[in-house]
Amino acid sequence: MAKLSTKQHSATHRIIIYGGPKTGKSLIAGKLAEFYKIIWFDLEKGHETLFELPAAWQDNIELIELPDTRSYPIAIETCLKVIKGKPVDICEQHGKVGCMLCKKEEKEFTHVDLDSLDNNTVVVFDSLTQLTNSAIAHITKSQPDDYKLTYDDWGNLGKLMDIFLSHVQQAGYNVIVISHEQEVETEGKKNTLVPVGGTRNFSRNVAKYFDHVIYAEKKNKKHVFASQTTYSNTILTGSRTNAVMEGLENEEATLLPIFKPELYKSKSEKGKEVAPINSKPNTPGGKAANILKNLKK
C-alpha cells in the first residue's frame, strides 16, 4: 500500500476552458505553443484565431481538422479512437481514422499516438460542444431531421461522452478541452454556469474529469479568466493545484500559472516583482523563487 507522502504532483495537466463565444478560449490555449508542441483537434474550424500567434509558435502546432457536420458526424468517431491511446492514422481530407478511400488514392495521413507523448506536448480538443453535437448526430444518423431524441438516445449520449471524458481524466499527457457555457440548476436549486458536455444533467458533473476548470469572459473589452473555486457563486471554476488565473486582465492572458508557475511572475501596482503564482516552497520551483526573492531584498 503506497502512502500519500511517497507520491509526487502530476507533471501533466487536464484542463477545461469554457465560456461564451469570442472570449479568448482558443487563443490562450494556443499561446502555450511558445513552450510546447501542440496537437490541435479542430472540430469547428476555430483555428483561424491561432494565426494571431507568432510564426515560430505556429510551427509548433500540428493541426488536425475534423470536418464534422450533422450529416457527417466524424468527430465523435475519430476522437473516441484517438483518446483511447492506440496509434492511429487520420486522413487529412475526411478526418477519418484508417480511411480506406484515402489509402486507395494515396492521400495524406497524420499519425497520432497519444500514449507515446511526453510532458512537452499538449493535446487540444476544440470543442467539447461540437463533440456533443457530433455524438447526437451519430446516435440519430438514420433518423429524419425533425427527429426528437428519446430517453434511450440521451442515455447513449451520456455513455459516449463518459467514454471520451474518462480517458481524458486518466490521460498521462497534457490535455486541454475547450467548451462553451450553459446554465444549469445545481444543488440548492441554484442556477450556475457550467461547461457544455452533453445533456444538462451530464454537464453538471463534467468538471470532475479535469484538474483545472477555467472560465473565460469579457470584461471592460478584455478577455479575463478565472480558476479559483471562490471566484463566483454562480460560475463553476476550480484548480486542484490552486493555480490563480484571476487578475490577468491587467496583464497578458496566459496559462503559465498552471503549466510553468516558476516562469510566471505577477507585478504589484508599484511594479515590484513578487513570488510566482502557485509556487510551492517545497518544490524546486518554489525554492528557487524564494532564494531569488531573498537575494533581491
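Above is the first protein from milestone M3; the second protein from the same milestone is given next.
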Amino acid sequence: MVRVSVSTDVLAGEFSGHRAHLVAVAYRLTGSVADAEDAVQESWLRLSTMDGSAVAGIRDLRAWLTTVVGRICLDRLTSAAARRERYVGPWLPEPLVTREQADDPADQVVRDEGVRMAAMVVLDQLTADQRVAFVLHDAFAVPFDEIAGILGCSAAAARQHASRARRALADADPPPRLPLAEQRAVVERFLTAIATGDTAGVVELLHPDVVMIGDSDGKARTTRRVLTGAAPITRFFFGLLAHYGVEKLAAGELVLVNGDLGMLIPEQPATDGSNWAVSRRVSTFAIRDGRITAIYDVCNPDKLAHLPA
C-alpha cells in the first residue's frame, strides 16, 4: 500500500520511532558509535529532503531506512579499513557503556546478544560485504535481493557473503552471554585476586588460551600486541599493579559494556614519582565455564569520546 503524503513533523515523528532500530543496525555494521549516529542522521537528511511524491511512494519506511543506513555503513566500513592501516596496535569496536539499574538509550541496542564485545570482534574480522550481508540478513531479516542492491552484486552472491560470515562466526565460537550474576562472580573474584596479589587465584580464573587485546592507537598505555595465555597476562596485570597502585584499580566502577559486565576506570593522575597516571579506559571480559577467555581494554580516547564525563 502506497503511503499518503505526510508533513515534515509527522515524518520526523515516524523517523523517531525507528531511530533505536537504525542505531542498532548501524552499530552492528560499523562497530563505531560515532559512525552509527552519523549514518542514522544522514538517513534522516536523505529522507527529509526528498520531495513529497517520493516519500509517498515509500511502502515500508522502516525497511527503506534500514536499506539506506546499510548503504551508508558500507561506505563507512571502506573508510574504516583505510584508517586501520595507519592504526597503532590492535583495533576494537567502540564500547557501549550502560549501567545495570539505569534507563539508558543504548539499552535497546545492548540487549541483543549479537553486540557483545566478543561477537563484535569477530564481525570486525569480516570483509565489508560479508559483514553487511550477515548483519542485515541474520540480525535484521533484510531479504537477500535488497542486500544485493546495497552491495551491487547478485542475490546469490549476497547469500554467499552471509554464509561465509556465518562460518567465520561459528569457527571463532565467541562465548555466549552468561547471566549477569555468573559474570559478576567471576569478575569480582578476578579483581580481588589481582588486588590482593593472589597470583595463583588469577591464573585459576584465566582460561589457558585466554587473550588480552588493548586498543589505544598509541595514545594511552595498554598492551600494544595481543597477549595470549594465562601466565603472560597474569604477569602483565601484576606489572601494571606495581606501577599504578591498587588504589587506582579500586577507583573503577562495574558497568555493562555491550551488555556484559566490565569496568569503567576514570582518568587519574600519578600519585607520586613512582606511579603512572591512569588513562580513562573501558575493559570487559568474555567468560566461558567459569573462566575468562578474553579481556578487551579500550583506552583510545577517541573511542571513549561518546561516554559521559
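Note on the second protein: The chain has three domains: 1-92, 118-174, 180-303.
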